[in-house]
């Protein structure tokens, strides 16, 4: 079969813009929201100045904004709100408590059960709250058993992605694929239409994640492995004839390279001096300082002072202590009030009564104490180490706004949890039996969650992600452009030509592998929306049913295992487990290959190719 001629200029423009969009989507230094708006502007402006006509008439630029009102986006947003209702009411807490209890007696069986439960829940609930629920449990298990959490967290995160493949509502990717396929004229998919192949692939994947992945994962330490309090209040007693004696406070601070922060200067029993830069420091003064033990000891040595606390000199007999203080590790999750903002913006200390000590991002833990942590813009997946009183941390965790990895308080509880579970079950049931489209049942469920006080409107808005909304809308716009200009048809012809003479099963397998590669480099939603019209075109050219090819796109776009940026829960798991990029390649690539091979055999058999 000859390779197809080049398509029209508008189709070429769309193909080049799609390639550019995929490049933008994988850039860490450009916000994903910015990339999505650039794509939308390029499409609308380009087709405004260079109109395109096909057999349907003129392609109106305003059609590219239709994704904002698309039923798939409505369903995605509504399901995110319903998931938030489950989290806010603590409806999933009994599952977490059950898993936490059985880890003590049967760890190997507990890991399997955790993977199965995580996968099963993710078939009906967005997997982000599932990961948020299980992360603190598994980290606590690792700490209690003195093992590395790296053997537990990545398998659990991958299990939620695998479980999400099983139903039309399991992931936003699935919703997009079935919605775009419906727009292209295919019959509507039922909620469980691809449950059988997904389950077969899941069995293979879960066995791998249970027995093999924990053994090949390098041992990594948790991001904030030292869980003893790190910030202390102490007093530096200025000795006679020491460096600080007779110097101004600014000179004393400069001696510590500007690191020491003096809260108060105490002179005698009653006089308290405001720590102004020109204040004179005298022998017998006590400088009140809050810092880490290492820094406090360094100041003691540099200044020739004596370190005291509560009237006793610091020594082995009287070490530094911090009564009623706790360290907690806070993960910045999608929808968190910290995401995309600085601690200074949210007035973190004043609002929550906690002190941020360190930041973990990517592969490293950065000690930001005294280095301007308050001005750093926080990203989804960042982990903050904070210290505060037990009461403050308890209140912080009960708010349910932010994921805390390491704290002694319980998960949020509410007598409204049964209501949230009932509503979520009703959403799934109505969609499963075909009584209502998922977009309508999920939106109704979200409204019910608010009406029965499972959450407030403010909490519902926190559940929504601007990134998800814009990536869905811009991906749908690209899909419209590819279909209307003939770009999707051209790519389908090129794909078929490149595998000319190959059996349909090979074409289906090749398409699935192509999407699996694409989804680990760019957004899985973008890969799904771009791949679906191509799959339909391939099926039409081969005079074969389009359904198995669409399902191949769905499965391929969900194989987000090989890179941390492939899926948002991968970023959360990476931060909590201290993983490196190479760890995802080491474990994720074999998992992609296993699932691809399994589905390459299963799909042709089920659809009788």
TrEMBL record:
GO biological process: potassium ion transport
Main location: membrane
Record-linked Pfam families: CitMHS, TrkA_C
Any GO molecular function: monoatomic cation transmembrane transporter activity
Matching SUPFAM superfamilies: TrkA C-terminal domain-like
Keyword tags: Membrane, Repeat, Transmembrane, Transmembrane helix, Transport
Domain of life: Bacteria
Keyword Transmembrane (UniProt): yes
GO cellular component: plasma membrane
Stored Gene3D superfamilies: Regulator of K+ conductance, C-terminal domain
Subcellular localization, as worded in the UniProt entry: Membrane
Membrane topology: Multi-pass membrane protein
Name of the protein in question: SLC13 family permease
Record organism: Kangiella profundi
């Amino acid at each position: 079969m000859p390779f197809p001629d080049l398509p029209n200029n508008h189709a070429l423009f769309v193909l080049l813009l799609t390639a550019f969009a995929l490049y933008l989507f994988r850039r860490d230094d450009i916000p994903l929201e910015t990339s999505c708006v650039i794509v939308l502007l390029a499409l609308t402006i380009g087709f405004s100045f260079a109109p395109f006509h096909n057999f349907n008439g003129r392609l109106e630029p305003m059609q590219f904004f239709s994704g904002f009102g698309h039923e798939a986006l409505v369903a995605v947003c509504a399901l995110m709100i319903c998931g938030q209702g489950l989290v806010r009411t603590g409806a999933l807490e009994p599952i977490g408590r059950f898993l936490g209890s059985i880890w003590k007696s049967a760890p190997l069986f507990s890991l399997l059960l955790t993977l199965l439960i995580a996968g099963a829940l993710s078939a009906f609930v967005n997997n982000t709250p599932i990961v948020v629920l299980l992360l603190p449990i598994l980290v606590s298990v690792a700490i209690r058993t003195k093992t590395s959490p790296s053997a537990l967290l990545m398998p659990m995160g991958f299990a939620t992605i695998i479980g999400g493949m099983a139903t039309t509502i399991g992931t936003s990717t699935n919703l997009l694929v079935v919605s775009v396929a419906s727009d292209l004229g295919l019959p509507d998919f039922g909620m469980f239409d691809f449950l059988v192949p997904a389950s077969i692939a899941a069995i293979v994947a879960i066995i791998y994640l249970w027995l093999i992945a924990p053994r090949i994962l390098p041992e990594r330490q948790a991001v904030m492995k030292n869980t003893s309090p790190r910030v202390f209040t102490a007093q530096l007693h200025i000795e006679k004839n020491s460096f600080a004696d007779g110097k101004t406070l600014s000179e004393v601070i400069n001696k510590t390279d500007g690191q020491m922060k003096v809260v108060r200067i105490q002179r005698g029993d009653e006089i308290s001096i405001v720590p102004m830069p020109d204040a004179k420091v005298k022998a017998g003064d006590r400088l009140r300082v809050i810092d880490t033990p290492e820094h406090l000891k360094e100041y003691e040595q540099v200044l020739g002072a004596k370190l005291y606390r509560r009237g006793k000199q610091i020594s082995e007999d009287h070490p530094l202590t911090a009564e009623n203080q706790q360290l907690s590790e806070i993960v910045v999750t999608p929808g968190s009030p910290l995401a995309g903002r600085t601690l200074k913006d949210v007035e973190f200390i004043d609002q929550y009564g906690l002190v941020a000590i360190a930041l973990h991002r990517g592969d490293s833990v950065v000690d930001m104490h005294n280095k301007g942590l308050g001005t750093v813009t926080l990203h989804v997946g960042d982990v903050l180490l904070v210290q505060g009183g037990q009461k403050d941390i308890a209140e912080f965790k009960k708010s349910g706004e932010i994921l805390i990895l390491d704290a002694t308080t319980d998960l949020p509880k509410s007598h409204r949890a049964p209501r949230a579970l009932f509503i979520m079950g009703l959403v799934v049931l109505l969609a499963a039996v075909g009584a209502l489209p998922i977009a309508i049942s999920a939106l109704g469920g979200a409204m019910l969650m608010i009406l029965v006080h499972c959450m407030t409107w403010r909490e519902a808005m926190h559940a929504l992600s601007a990134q998800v909304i814009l990536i869905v809308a811009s991906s749908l716009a690209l899909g419209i452009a590819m279909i209307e200009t003939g770009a999707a048809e051209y790519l389908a012809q090129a794909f078929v030509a490149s595998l000319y003479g190959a059996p349909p099963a090979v074409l289906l397998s090749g398409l699935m592998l192509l999407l699996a590669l694409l989804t680990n480099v760019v957004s899985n939603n973008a890969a799904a929306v771009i791949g679906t019209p191509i799959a339909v075109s391939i099926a039409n050219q081969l005079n074969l049913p389009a359904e198995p090819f669409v399902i191949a796109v769905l499965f391929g776009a969900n194989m987000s295992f090989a890179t941390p940026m492939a899926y948002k829960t991968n970023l959360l798991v990476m931060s909590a487990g201290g993983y490196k990029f190479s760890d995802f390649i080491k474990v994720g690539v074999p998992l992609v290959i296993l699932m691809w091979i399994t589905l390459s055999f299963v799909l042709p058999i089920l659809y009788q190719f």
